[in-house]
Structure formats: C-alpha cells, structure tokens
Amino acid sequence: MSLLKRRDPTVQKAGIRKKVLARRREAHEQGPDAAANGHLLDVLRPHAGKVMSGYMPIRSEIDPRPALTQMARLGPVVVPVIQGAGLPLIFRVWTPEAKMIDGPFGALVPAEGEFLTPEVLVVPLVAFDATGNRLGYGGGFYDRTLAQLSAAGQVLALGFAYAAQEYAGILPCEDTDWRLDMVVTEVGARRFDPPA
Ligand SMILES: Nc1nc2c(c(=O)[nH]1)N(C=O)[C@@H](CNc1ccc(C(=O)N[C@@H](CCC(=O)O)C(=O)O)cc1)CN2
Ligand SMILES: Nc1ncnc2c1ncn2[C@@H]1O[C@H](COP(=O)(O)OP(=O)(O)OP(=O)(O)O)[C@@H](O)[C@H]1O
To answer: Where does ATP bind (predicted)?
Structure first.
C-alpha cells in the first residue's frame, strides 16, 4: 500500500472496522449485554424526563433495549430514522409496545408517532478509543446528526458497546468526526476529557 493510501483516513477506517467487527461478533456471542444495560441505566436515570435517543440493534451490536424499556416509563425515548444519504437522522418516539417496521440497513423504525429532538443520545458504534473518538459504519449519519444537534443546544453523546470494541490506538479522525462524552460497556461507564 502506498504511503498516501495508508494516511487516507477513509482507507484506514475500513481496515479498523473489519478487525474490530470481528471482535464485536465474538463479544456478541458471549452476550454480556445484561451487565452493560445495568451500567447504561445508572448513567441514564439522572437524565429521566429529557428526550433520550436509543437505537434498534443490527448485526452484532449490543442491545440497549432493556435499559430503554425502563427509561421509556420515565420519559420520552426516541430511535433514529434515516431521511436519506447525506442527511442527519431524525428521531421518532419508541416504546416497548410501538409498532415497528423494517428501515434501511435492517434497523427497525417506529411505524407512527411523534418526531422529537433528543438531548441525550445512546449511540451505536463499531469502535471507540481511549479519547472518545468513535467509528461507525461509515455513513456519517451520527456525525452529521451530532453536529446539527450541538449547534442548536447541549447534547450528551454516550457510546454503548462491548469492551472488546475499544481500539488500542487513536482512531483516525476527520474534521467532521464527533467525539463521545462517555462510553458504557459491560465493564462500566467511562467519561472522556473534553478536547484540549
Ligand atoms: N442500530 C443502528 N441503527 C442505526 C445506525 C447504526 O449504526 N446502528 N446508524 C448509524 O449511522 C444509521 C444507519 N447507518 C448505517 C450506515 C451504513 C450501514 C452499512 O451497512 N454500510 C455498509 C458499507 C457501506 C459503504 O460504506 O460502502 C456495510 O457496512 O456493509 C449500516 C448502517 C441509523 N440507524
Ligand atoms: N457534518 C458533516 N457534514 C458533511 N459531511 C459529513 C459530516 N459528518 C460526516 N460527514 C461525511 O461522512 C463520511 C463518513 O463518515 P464516517 O466514516 O466518519 O462515518 P461513521 O461515523 O463511521 O458512520 P455513522 O456516523 O453513520 O455511524 C465522511 O467521509 C464525512 O466526509
């Protein structure tokens, strides 16, 4: 591979995705989701009443629905809906009883209900690092969404993942990549320092 290609973050990200996804699949088979949901609930509870976004898991993503089910009793929980390529996500109210339909990329979306703007976001991811950088599937959906929401007000971005999804180095980042405030895994919750 040429030096230029190695330094291209898009190329680097693709290689890291593949490696970390293999580890995520292994962790998913072990299924430490219950322990992670306990930690997630501890982090979310103080925010009860705020509009909070979760996600409907796809592939080997860790399942946040146990914690979201509890939070939906205390306040509005929303999940992402894709408007189109290159556009930020919008969010529709979810409850455990909501009628769900298939959305793009296999994630379920609510068939009906109000669209609300979240202040606290539980964000799915492929990889994270020790400084709060996040790598997703490459659509840039969460980067665009977090940029838009933070321009309008304060948001809290919480990554939810298996501990095995931590990348040992610093993830390659572009100017548009958004950093996480915290990450929650089966090991516990970690808060990242704000950028220097
Ligand atoms: N559960 C869940 N819901 C979510 C997301 C997510 O990551 N997880 N998203 C977070 O953004 C959005 C969906 N984004 C996605 C974007 C791309 C692919 C995907 O499969 N991409 C291809 C590669 C495409 C390419 O770059 O060529 C792939 O991985 O095979 C999946 C989801 C909205 N909802
Ligand atoms: N706020 C933004 N405005 C314009 N383009 C953006 C913005 N955020 C991200 N992008 C573009 O989206 C592309 C994909 O981003 P990236 O690979 O970081 O996605 P990701 O974080 O892995 O995916 P996702 O957020 O969907 O889970 C980038 O090449 C970037 O140029």
So the answer is: 13-17, 134-142
Where do we find the tokens 């969460």?
142
CATH of the domain at 156: 3.40.50.10420
Write the CB contacts of 48 (distance below 8 Å, at least 6 apart in sequence).
71, 74, 75
Nearest Cα to Cα of residue 177 among 66, 35, 16: 16
State pLDDT tens for residues 78-135: 999 999 999 999 999 999 999 999 999 999 999 999 999 999 999 999 999 999 999 9
Residue 174 CA to ligand 2 centre (angstroms): 8
Q: What is the ipTM of this complex?
A: 0.92
Tokens 């609930």 belong to which residue?
41
Judge whether 93 and 113 are in contact, CB under 8 Å.
yes
Our measurement of the distance from residue 105's CA atom to the centroid of its chain's CA atoms, rounded to an integer in Å, reads 15
Ligand 1 contacts CB of residue 103 (under 6 A)? no
Closest residue by CA, ligand 1 atom 26: 138
Q: What is the pTM of this model?
A: 0.94
Does a structural domain hold residue 99?
Answer: no
